[in-house]
Amino acid sequence: MITDQENAIAQDDDVVRVPNGFTGSVIGLTLKISFVKTVIGKKENNQEMSTNLKYLSLSILVFQTTSLVLTMRYSRTLKEEGPRYLSSTAVVLAELLKILSCVLLVYKDSKCNLRTLNRVLHDEILNKPMETLKLAIPSGIYTLQNNLLYVALSNLDAATYQVTYQLKILTTALFSVSMLSKKLGIYQWLSLVILMTGVAFVQWPSDSQATAAKEHSAGSQFVGLMAVLIACFSSGFAGVYFEKILKETKQSVWIRNIQLGFFGSIFGLMGVYIYDGEQLSKNGFFQGYNKLTWIVVVLQALGGLVIAAVIKYADNILKGFATSLSIILSTLISYFWLQDFVPTSVFFFGAILVIAATFLYGYDPKPAGNPIKA
What we know:
Elements: H1 4-11, H2 20-77, H3 87-109, H4 114-126, H5 129-133, H6 136-155, H7 158-164, H8 168-179, H9 186-202, H10 207-216, H11 221-248, H12 253-275, H13 277-283, H14 291-313, H15 316-338, H16 345-361
Helix pairs in contact: 2-14, 2-15, 3-12, 3-14, 6-11, 6-12, 7-15, 8-11, 9-16, 15-16
């Protein structure tokens, strides 16, 4: 006698009777597959987001580097009525703006809680005076460097400055070897030789550059070159010293930047009153300020934050690409817009060598894997 269940199975071929244990195994396997797909999907989304952040940070770095150099050069050579703004005051304002930006970032990391922010600042800065004082040395050097960049761009065109300033790779490498006992590979040593050769070609005098200097330059190219060279050495030493401090402590980079900005503003104010005190008493702190000056201040203040983001999300190869693109853009804009630079074949050859050295220094050859045996 056929039961109702057997009759149903006979009428519908899609209904299959299986053991209960097997059904449970299939459901469990299905759930595991679904979980794995979810995890893989999240990883792919995270990778895509990380890639987007990487290229976004690099785009911002190219924009910040190029626009800062060009606007700083333009603001220092622009002929206007009345006194020109004091670069020493611009450096102080940039430090204060950097402090404000880092405090806001610490506030964000503190889940937007004022009590937590106050406790973090008190514990990490006020309760650790010796740790804070360690930042006085690199802060003073960075302040000197920032003032020197204004001197350099008052006397050099943006393209020549951009290429020559890449000598900071050489000084950073030398200080890393001496202070951090860092070992450089053969590619890195080779890149440093190429870098020095490229900068030498860029600085090689030519008739067209001499003519352009007489017509457009606001000062002496020798003064600009010396300012860049000193800035390269100060940048290399301060950068390595700061890196050493970061490795020895667990404080966040934003806290460290607040400490740097605090000392930087103090040293900057000292420089204002020592070197520009007379002009300050005549025309005031904000003499010669306009919209362009404030743009320069904002770009200089955000420079360190952009570099921190690039270090976090990008690698040396992409950073080298950003530097190279910035050099190219500065060269083109200096020639077509500022019209204070006449490129020569020697300059282009030197610039290509510097760009190649930048890529080569960040190149990290991966060891070849063992061949798979059959």
